[in-house]
């Protein structure tokens, strides 16, 4: 038993040095959720708990899911971002009134953490390349305004996005 | 009993103060109440009974600081005699030593395999029953025809967790722990007293299993090994009958988001003189695809016992047992829109060498949302040296 542990330790430490760049990277909270939060149970909806509650729940899940402290922090930041209210969305919008930047929003809200686009990205959600073509822009807008509207167990968070911003994201996905 | 009466107040106070705190410090609460509950209707052919049962399992979470986190889970249920049972499933403190290392002390869920630490809450488990190799833990009420291999979920002691991230999608998990471990089951005339002190589910089970064995004894000659397998008390206690601690750990490899495989080990001396040991080795897999989940575990146990030789001297012999289960869930709802929220589940389990049994289980689940589910499970157990059992359950479970 002991020698197995030693071999594994040495092997994993050498692997670790090869991968250590991960630690320096900025971690995407959406990606951490995609990678860790559907393995044991259905991913829970963000709106079920308040942010102060999430701050106490996440250390519980850090231990269960074997997350690093940085990953835990990234999840919390993402949850905080998505649970902000509409006023902020308006503020963001007014700053960039002329045309919201779809690509920037797509990155900021971690869509690709859970969805793939052009073959790259997360897998808890379906690939987004064909969604608008197949289901229409109306569906896309409705889905982003209320992700649970057609699927009550959807883990997709409701984002603080206004219609204009959603259309900008759609534009970016189609491009 | 007084404790029981106080409990609702304690919960209410805790909730109220949690809310107050949450309101006071908008961004940094220190308390959260979570947990799960379920209602179950179970119909068993062997026991010739059908009954409703209910459980309420609140989880109390506290963040003392960025480093310190406290968690406690109690299970409140009503037993066969109408008595309210309260069980402390876990109560421990985590100390986050670094980004990747966590120290844990208290009563905690043992990181052995995946069912106990990760999958047993009823809103997570895809079956209304627990896997056969875990006996009645966290699933079956009352008598359970399959004898579990490692019927322990939590114990008191200390543990360390360490994570090695290998890039974004791969990780290695290490968990090691030291706990009080096991003892020999109390002699049978103490049964009554033991019940009063410690209303623990397993006890009922083991008692019944034993009656069963005695019954067989009258009818036919059975393999005496089966009778001699020592009964071990797995319930966590605040005292230890010997100074030898249980020691164990798990190494797992995760290929995220879909796969986690692990190997676990547990060993302890259980008698007062520290001569007899119990060892369990396990392998587990949790594999999650787009439309399916495959979960399984294999456990092998070695239990020492004394046997008198010709010279009436005790020599140690070892009983081997093993068993495994594999559960496949097909999330039909993710494939066909009309079946949204529906799962189909098939599970096979067997225990070998001593108390041999096999079980097939079939289930349909319907998810109302991501944490509320109605499960219907049918289970067919074949017991080699005993009566077979068929049972059916409908369970409504919710996480909160």
Automatic annotation (TrEMBL), chain A:
All copies of domain Cytochrome c, residue ranges: 97-175
Database matches in SUPFAM superfamilies: Cytochrome c
Signal peptide: 1-23
UniProt KW keywords: Electron transport, Heme, Iron, Metal-binding, Signal, Transport
Annotated Pfam families: Cytochrom_C
InterPro entries tied to this protein: Cyt_c-like_dom, Cyt_c-like_dom_sf, Cytochrome_c550/c551-like
PANTHER family xrefs: CYTOCHROME C-553-LIKE (PTHR37823)
Protein name: Cytochrome c
Species of provenance: Thalassotalea algicola
Upper lineage: Bacteria, Pseudomonadati, Pseudomonadota, Gammaproteobacteria, Alteromonadales
From TrEMBL, chain B:
Compositional bias segments (type: Basic and acidic residues): 197-211
Region annotation Disordered: where it falls in the sequence: 186-223
Pfam annotation, one family: Porin_4
Positions with biased composition (Acidic residues): 212-221
Domain Porin: 237-382
Superkingdom of origin: Bacteria
Name this protein carries in UniProt: Porin
Source organism per UniProt: Thalassotalea algicola
């Amino acid at each position: 038993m002991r020698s197995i542990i030693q071999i594994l330790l040495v092997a994993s430490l050498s692997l670790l040095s090869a991968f250590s760049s991960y630690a320096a990277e900025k971690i995407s909270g959406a990606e951490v959720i995609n990678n860790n939060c559907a393995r044991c149970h259905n991913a829970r909806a963000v709106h079920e708990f308040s942010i102060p509650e999430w701050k106490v729940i996440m250390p519980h899940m850090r231990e269960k899911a074997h997350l690093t402290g940085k990953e835990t922090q990234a999840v919390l930041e993402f949850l905080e971002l998505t649970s902000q209210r509409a006023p902020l969305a308006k503020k963001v919008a007014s700053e960039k009134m002329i045309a919201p930047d779809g690509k920037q929003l797509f990155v900021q809200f971690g869509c690709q953490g859970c969805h793939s686009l052009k073959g790259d990205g997360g897998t808890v959600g379906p690939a987004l390349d064909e969604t608008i073509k197949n289901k229409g822009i109306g569906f896309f807008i409705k889905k982003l305004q209320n992700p649970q509207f057609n699927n009550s167990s959807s883990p997709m968070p409701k984002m603080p996005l206004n219609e204009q911003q959603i259309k900008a994201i759609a534009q970016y996905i189609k491009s | 009993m007084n404790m029981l009466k106080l409990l609702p107040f304690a919960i209410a106070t805790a909730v109220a103060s949690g809310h107050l705190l949450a309101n006071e410090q908008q961004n940094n609460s220190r308390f959260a109440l979570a947990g799960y509950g379920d209602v179950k209707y179970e119909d068993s052919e062997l026991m010739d009974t059908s009954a409703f049962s209910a459980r309420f399992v609140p989880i109390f979470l506290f963040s003392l600081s960025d480093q310190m986190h406290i968690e406690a889970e109690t299970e409140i249920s009503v037993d066969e005699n109408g008595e309210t049972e309260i069980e402390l499933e876990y109560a421990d403190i985590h100390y986050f030593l670094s980004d990747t290392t966590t120290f844990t002390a208290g009563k905690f869920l043992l990181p052995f395999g995946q069912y106990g630490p990760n999958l047993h809450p009823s809103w997570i488990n895809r079956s209304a029953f627990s896997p056969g190799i875990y006996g009645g833990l966290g699933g079956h009420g009352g008598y359970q025809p399959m004898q579990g291999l490692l019927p322990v979920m939590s114990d008191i002691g200390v543990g360390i967790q360490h994570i090695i991230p290998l890039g974004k999608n791969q990780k290695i998990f290490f968990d090691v722990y030291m706990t009080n471990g096991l003892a020999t089951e109390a002699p049978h005339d103490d049964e009554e007293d033991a019940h009063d002190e410690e209303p623990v589910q397993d006890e009922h089970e083991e008692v019944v299993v034993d009656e069963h064995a005695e019954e067989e004894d009258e009818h036919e000659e059975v393999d005496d090994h089966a009778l001699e397998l020592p009964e071990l008390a797995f319930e966590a206690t605040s005292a230890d009958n010997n100074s030898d601690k249980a020691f164990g750990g798990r190494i797992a490899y995760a290929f995220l988001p879909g796969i986690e495989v692990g190997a676990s080990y547990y060993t302890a001396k259980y008698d007062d003189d520290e001569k007899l040991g119990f060892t369990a080795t396990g392998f587990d897999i949790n594999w999650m695809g787009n439309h399916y989940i495959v979960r399984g575990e294999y456990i092998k146990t070695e239990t020492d016992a004394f046997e008198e030789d010709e010279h009436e001297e005790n020599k140690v012999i070892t009983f081997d047992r093993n068993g495994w289960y594999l559960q496949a869930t097909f999330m039909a709802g993710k494939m066909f829109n009309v079946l949204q929220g529906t799962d189909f589940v098939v599970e096979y389990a067997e225990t070998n060498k001593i108390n041999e049994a096999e079980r097939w289980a079939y289930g349909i689940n319907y998810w109302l949302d991501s944490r509320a589910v109605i499960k219907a499970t049918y289970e067919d157990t074949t017991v080699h040296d005993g009566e077979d059992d068929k049972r059916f359950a409908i369970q409504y479970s919710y996480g909160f």
